[in-house]
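Technical note accompanying the year-one report. For the benefit of new consortium partners, we illustrate the data format agreed upon in the data management plan: each record pairs a sequence with a structure-token string. No post-processing was applied to the example shown here.
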Amino acid sequence: MQLYNTLSAEARAELIDQAGKQRLTLSFYAYAKIENPKQFRNDLFVEWNKLDALGRTYVAKEGINAQMSVPAENMEAFRKTLEVYDFMKNIRLNVAVEQDDHSFLKLTVKVRDKIVADGLNDETFDVTNIGVHLKAKEFNQILENPNTIVVDFRNHYESEIGHFKGAITPDVETFRESLPIIYEQLQNHKEDKNLVMYCTGGIRCEKASAYFKHQGFKNVYQLEGGIINYAKQIKEENLESKFIGKNFVFDHRLGERITDDIVSQCHQCGEPCDNHTNCENEGCHLLFIQCDECKTAMENCCSTECQEIIHLPLVEQVKLRRGIKNGNMIFRKGKSDKLVFKHSGELSDQSLAIAKKQTAIRQKIKKVLIGKAEHYYVNARIGLFSIDNQEIAIGDKILISGPTTGNEEIIIEKMFVNGSENTLAISGDKVTMSLPFRIRLSDKLYKIIS
């Protein structure tokens, strides 16, 4: 019985592309008492693996929290795997605003102490005694009430790129930090204010609503289904969006646009921008906001120090980070003295720019996988690819795609095949060509066929 992944992320990506079938990115959660989380985890993995479901899921004695990518044709079967459990009957599945077939490339189901770490050790705290759920229209209405206080229960790097207008946005790195901070700030308003809270998909503010009810707050409300469900409802019902900007998500997309407003800045140059990137230096991997110009100039790095490191031989890079725990840097997302335009805590509701419309490349074009990236020669700005399938020729339009590179289309004007200039490359050949951008070993090469 298979209980763990057997394919790499790259191999899975190739299988997804070859299948050519639409996948849906979704999330869900449920608080419940689970007696045997390990057995529950194993049962889910076996059933989901049969359906080619991918994603990241945490289970604990207090419930389940999942972010998934499921083939569209398997959605009903997937739902049935959930509804065999009484506490997930008619469970709400939050389907992502923006779809990407590669949002998740592995199936991971882990057992945790809690599905949302809260730092609490109070046995009298009942996580199921929650506040009132509000749909989008009701949420908009209560925000107009002068006696309403709205709180963002996400972390600083999430709220920076998008938030509800007028919301309290704590400068925190974890959910557990936000509970005492908000309690201290609002403890004198237990009876005279509406405490309204929201998060990405509802799981954090659901626990927060139970916590604040436990602490004696009388009028506690939460946005049902979080920002994801809110975005869906305002579109379906043609409602005004009280949320401005982008919703941070925890897959490789790192965000889905709710409104066209850009409310944050590139952390390096200060230009309006709300696109996150991870530092190219594997010993850093810091998450920060970076515009396209800085991405090119800094080669996806957060600092000149990291930029120098990525040009060292791989052996030297490994030596530099040997014995150093980089987890603190990775999870202190956006917290670095080198990021001079970083904002957190009290945030503005002002739009700094309007986002350009983008085409969802995977959904709009037909392509065939040709090969993969082998190397990038930085000084010459040359990319090396291995051709593993079919052929490419001068004049072909190609797509180079990867988690960091994104989707880049170019027309081949000149190329070298196995070291010599040529007009055609076939399976087994090595191809080099000049590129206006950096490629990575995780990138795939496609030929666009229409």
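Partners are asked to follow this layout when depositing records. The mean pLDDT is 88.
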